[in-house]
Amino acid sequence: MLSALSRARFDGRLHHVSSVAVAGDYADTFTEAMFQEGQDLPHAYHRSKFESEKLVRESKVDYRIYRPSSVVGDSKTGAMDRIDGVYYSFGAIKKLAYALPGWVRLPVPRIRGRFNLVPVDYVADAMVHIAFSDTDARVFHLVDPKPPPFVKMADMFVAAAGGPRLGPAVDIAKMPGAKKTGALMSMPPSVRELRDAFVSDLGLPTQGLGAMNIKVRLEDGNTQAALAGSGISCPPLRTYAKTLYRYYEDHLDPMKQRPARYRRELGGKVVLVTGASRGIGLATAHMAAEAGAEVLLVARDAAKLEAVAQEIRAAGGRAHAHATDLSSFDAIDALADAVLAQYGGVDVLIHNAARSIRRPISASLDRFHDYERTMALNYFAPVRLTLRLLPSLRERGGTISHVLTMGVLMPAPYFAAYLATKGALDAFGDSLMAELQHEGIHVSSVYLPLVKTEMMAPVEEYAGRSDVMTPRRAATMILDGVVDRRRRVMTGMGAYFAFSNRVMPATTSRILNLLERAFPLDDTPSEFPLEKAFITNAIGGSPV
Ligand SMILES: NC(=O)c1ccc[n+]([C@@H]2O[C@H](COP(=O)([O-])OP(=O)(O)OC[C@H]3O[C@@H](n4cnc5c(N)ncnc54)[C@H](OP(=O)(O)O)[C@@H]3O)[C@@H](O)[C@H]2O)c1
User: Fold this and answer.
1) Domains 2-252 and 256-327+343-371+384-503 share a fold
2) Distance, CA 483 to ligand 1 centroid (Å)?
3) Active site residue: 26, 240, 414, 418, which one?
C-alpha cells in the first residue's frame, strides 16, 4: 500500500490503525510519543503491529496513527463479531458461575496489573472525530484512561454471569516456597505444557496468552486533548461489563454454535459408536453423522442397526452397520479386523455400549455372574477393542471417549457391579493418557447423570425424577468431549460430587449409607421415612 501511494505521489494523509501491542512487554507508562523503547515483542501479534507502524513512520506520507487497546463490543448493545481477547475467558467464567452461586466469595491470587479494554463505539467515534480535527499530534492512544485493576475487571464479568464475588486477593508471591516455584516456572518446555494444560482446564485458549501485557500503563494525552469539548469519552467498564457478557451469552458462546463446531472437527472423520442401536449411542451416532462423520454403528441387533444406518443415509449422512456381540472376545476381534480392512482405522472411538445392574451386594451372594457379565461388556470389551485399534488411533492422533456415569464420582448404593466396571474403565483411560498423550491420543471421560433411556426404564422410582437428561443432551456431552478434546466432562452436580467425595470422604460415605437405609430395596421399612418423603418430593423419585 505504501509503495503504491508513493508511486502515485499521494500527498494526502494516511490514517493508520495500529495497536497498543507496539508496547510489547513494556512494564511502565507508555506514552503516545514512544515507539522504539527497547521493549521486547514476545508475541507475533506485537511484532506485526510494530513492524507495520514502523513502515508507516519511515515512509514519506503524512500520517496519523491510532493505537486502540483490546477492543471489546459496543458499550450500549454489547455487539461484537468475534471471540478475541477477554472474550476467551467468558467460557471459564460461565463454568464458574454455573458451579458457584453469587453469594460465595472466592479467594483469588493477587494479580497486579490492569488489562486495558476499550469499547468499539468509543474507538470508532474517537477516530472519526480525531481524523477531522485540527491538531499537530500524530499518534493517539484509544484506551480506557482509568482501567480497573485486573482482579476487579474479572470480578465485574463474573458478577455479570451471576457467579461468585472474587476476593479477597491472596498474595501468592509472599507464600512460603514461592521463590522456588518462580524458578520452576521458567523451565521450558515441560512447564509450558503443564501451564497450557492448566489454562485449558480453565476453559481458556493457550495461544494468545503471550500477547497480554497487564503491566503497561497507557497514557492518552493527545487523544484527550483532541476530544476535548466533543462529548466523546470512554465509558468506565463497570457501566457496560454486563452488556458485553449478555451479548456473548446470546450470540457468541461456542456452545450455541455446536453444529458448526462439530462439522469442523468431525467432518470426514471415521467415528465408531458402540451401543448405537438405541438410547445415548443412537443419539450420538445421529449427531456425529449430521456433522459429516462416517459413522460405524455397533450393537447386537443387526436389523435395528441396519434401520439406523438407513435412516442416517436417507438424511444424507454416511453410516455402516457392524452387528457385534461385544461380550464375545472373538466377535470384538472380528469387528476390529473388519474396521481396519474396510476403513483403515478410526479417528474417534466411542465406548458407549454397557449394561447396568441395580442390586444390593447382600442380595448378590450367589450372583457372581452379575459381576462377570458387567465386567465383560463394560470393561473388557472396550479395553480389547481399544488395544486392537490403538496402532491406527496413534497414527491418526485419535480420540477415545469413555461413556461413564456420575456414579464413578460418587458411588451410590445398589450399583456395585456396574460402578466397578465404569471405575475400571476410567482408570484405564487415565493410564492411556499418562502413556500416550504426547503422541496426540486423547481420552475423554464422560460422567453422565441419569438419562431417559431403556437402561433406566426398569426402575420405577426413577420415572418422575426431575433431573433426568435426554439422550440428545447426553450425546452433546460426549461429542463436546471429543471435539473440544476435554479430559473430563461432567455436569455442575457431577463436579460438586467429585469435589465433596475428595474433600469429605467420611461424610460422603455416611450420606450414601443413610440414603441406602432411607431407600431400602427389599421389603424392610425405611429407617428414615421423613427424610425419604422429603427427598422423594424434592427430586421426584429415588436418588439411588
Ligand atoms: N441411561 C442412563 O441413565 C445412564 C446414566 C449414566 C451412564 N449411562 C451410560 O450410557 C451408555 C449408554 O446407555 P443407554 O442408557 O443408552 O443404554 P441402553 O438404552 O440400554 O442402550 C445400550 C446399547 O448397548 C447395546 N448393547 C448392549 N449389550 C451389547 C452387547 N453385548 N454387544 C453390543 N452392544 C450391546 C444395545 O444394543 P443391542 O441390545 O442391540 O446390543 C444398545 O444399543 C452406557 O455406557 C451407560 O452405562 C447411562
Assistant:
1) yes
2) 22
3) 418
Cα-to-centroid distance, 282 and ligand 1 (Å):
10
Residue 458 CA, ligand 1 centroid: distance in Å: 13
Cβ–ligand 1 distance for 325 under 6 Å, the answer yes
CB of 473 shorter than 6 A to ligand 1:
no
DSSP structure class, residue 152: H
The rounded Å distance from CA 470 to ligand 1 centre is: 14
Evaluate: CB of 356 within 6 angstroms of ligand 1: yes
Q: Is 288 in the pocket of ligand 1 (CB under 6 A)?
A: no
What are the residue ranges spanned by the domains of the chain?
2-252, 256-327+343-371+384-503
3.40.50.720, 2.40.30.90, 3.40.50.2300, 3.30.390.30: CATH of 256-327+343-371+384-503: 3.40.50.720
Residue 418 bears catalytic tag: yes
Q: How far is CA 46 from the centre of its chain?
A: 27
**The ligand 1 atom nearest the CA atom of 281:** 16
Q: How many CA atoms lie within 13 A of 264 on its CB side?
A: 9
Return all residues near 447 (Cβ < 8 A) that are at least 6 apart. 404, 405, 406, 408, 409, 488, 489, 490, 491, 494, 498
- 327 CB under 6 A from ligand 1? yes
Instruction: For domain 2-252, give the CATH number.
Output: 3.40.50.720
> Which grid coordinates are listed for 500?
465433596
Structure confidence at residue 303 as a pLDDT band (50, 70, 90): very high
What the block records as the C-alpha cell of 155 is 470480578
Cell of 395: 497414527
* CA angle centred on 88, ends 266 and 212, rounded to 5°: 130
Q: What is the pLDDT of residue 369?
A: 97
pLDDT of residue 250: 85
pLDDT digit string (tens) for 395-416? Answer: 999 999 999 999 999 988 999 9
Residue ranges of alpha helices (H) inside 32-100 are 44-58, 90-99
Residue type present at position 58: E
State the pLDDT confidence band at 277, using cuts at 50, 70 and 90. very high
Report how far residue 527's alpha carbon sits from residue 543's, in angstroms, rounded to the nearest whole number: 16
- Give the DSSP H/E element, type plus range, for residue 512: helix 505-518
